[in-house]
Structure formats: C-alpha cells, structure tokens
Amino acid sequence: MSVALQTIWESFLGPLLSRPKRLQMAALCHRGEGDGREYLLVTSRGTARWIIPKGWPIRGLKANETALREAWEEAGVKKGKATRDPVGTYTYQKRQDSGWEFPVETLVYSVAVNDLSDDFPEAHERTRRWVKADTAAELVNEPELKSIFRSQ
C-alpha cells in the first residue's frame, strides 16, 4: 500500500469504519397488569416507523432518568417510574440527514406510566399508540426490540 493510501486509511477511513457504537437510552412505557398490560409506541419523526421513546445521554441525569425524560418529550409520559437497571438492549442503524448510518446501542428501561399528557414537546411530530406486547413486537423493526417485547 502506498504511503498516501496508508495515511488516509490510518487517519480517516480506519477509525471511521471501526468506531464504537454510540449509546442511547429508551423507555419501554407500559400500563396495566397481567393480560391487560399495554405498551406505548410512538412514530419516528423521519420515517413514521413505530418505535419506543429514546434519546442521547443528558448531562446531569442518570441513564434511567434520561429514558424517563425522553418518554415525556416524545410520548407525553407526565408521571412514570423507570427501573434502575435496563431490562434489555437493542442495536439499530441511525441515519443522519447526509444519508450516512452509524450503529447505536440502546439501553431499554421499563417505565410504569402513571399519567399521560396530550400536550407534550413533540406532540405535533409524533403519533402514539397503546398496544399489547405481541402487537408491539410485530410493529417495531429492530429484531432485538421485538425480542424484548416477546419476553414481556
């Protein structure tokens, strides 16, 4: 390999292609008990796919607190209780406006919903829907997230 190509590989292409996954936190919002338990899905802003609320770490908040904040901003969860530890993880490819994709690992926290508001920050950008776990597993695209719903 020429020195120029080796320099490009070591300085730019190699690190770009071998970057570690980025990390997000997600809220597996639910209400009810037993056979009556339902899960809250929202649509993504770009493609209107069914997802669970998720977002990047927020400085000053623990991971489960970040999941709860995302549940408020994206789904209107006004009052809820998030588990301290994640109930699972899933990976997906985040698409940037430029068209590039990069892997994101998502920590999923269970959130028991106590109160839901119709007026929340992203209400005009998303649709939300309560569904049973088996329906949620059919609606989401990510295989590992499907597994999380199927294990509920």
Reconstruct the topology from this structure.
Elements: H1 3-17, E1 22-31, E2 38-43, E3 50-51, E4 54-55, H2 63-75, E5 77-82, E6 88-95, E7 101-116, E8 128-131, H3 133-139, H4 143-150
In short:
The chain has helices at 3-17, 63-75, 133-139, 143-150; strands spanning 22-31, 38-43, 50-51, 54-55, 77-82, 88-95, 101-116, 128-131. The protein is an alpha+beta fold and 152 residues long.
Provide the succession of SSEs: HEEEEHEEEEHH
CATH topology: Nucleoside Triphosphate Pyrophosphohydrolase
Report the structural category. Answer: alpha+beta
Q: Distance between the terminal alpha carbons, to the nearest Å? A: 52 Å
Describe the structure.
Helix 3 runs antiparallel to helix 4 (143-150). Strands 1, 2, 3, 4, 5, 6, 7 and 8 form an 8-stranded mixed sheet that branches. The chain has 4 helices and 8 strands, in the order αββββαββββαα. The mean pLDDT is 90. It is of the alpha+beta class and 152 residues long.
